[in-house]
């Protein structure tokens, strides 16, 4: 069986060494074996796990979502399937809210751009008249919160 060091895993999976260590700390990857010199050593299946994690992250799932999905792999299939549908529906609802918020921001920016462009040299003054908008900001800074 092929054994890989962290640098090999990083280059073959397209993630950084820090990302691999983060996935380990988060429980997304099993603790790796170690060489006698205490270097991490992985088997090839780690690459598949990292690719799965990246695909799920790219679809907007959180680390918590992904961790639960991975653990569902060992659960009873009907129960796992039901929970997987719940997780995906929750995340889809969240993403749809984000998309709606971004579309609202886009519409406001188009309106402001039109006003600013029409005002020519007085365009900067138009920024003072930006509508507040009732929607929450599309981006949150800091830690991500689970739904």
Structure description:
With 147 residues, the protein is mostly helical. It has 2 domains: 1-58, Orthogonal Bundle (Multidrug-efflux Transporter Regulator, Chain: A, Domain 2); 62-147, no CATH class. Helix content is 61%, strand content 6%. The protein has helices at residues 6-13, 17-26, 45-58, 63-72, 77-119, 123-126, and strands at 3-5, 33-34, 40-43. Strands 1-3-2 form a 3-stranded antiparallel sheet. The longest helix is centred in the middle third of the chain and has 43 residues, at 77-119. The two termini are 40 Å apart. The model has no long low-confidence stretch (mean pLDDT 87).
Give the distance, in angstroms, between the N- and C-terminal Cα atoms: 40 Å
Q: Determine the structural class based on helices, strands and strand pairing.
A: mainly alpha
Count of discrete structural domains:
2
Can you write the helix and strand succession as a string? Answer: EHHEEHHHH
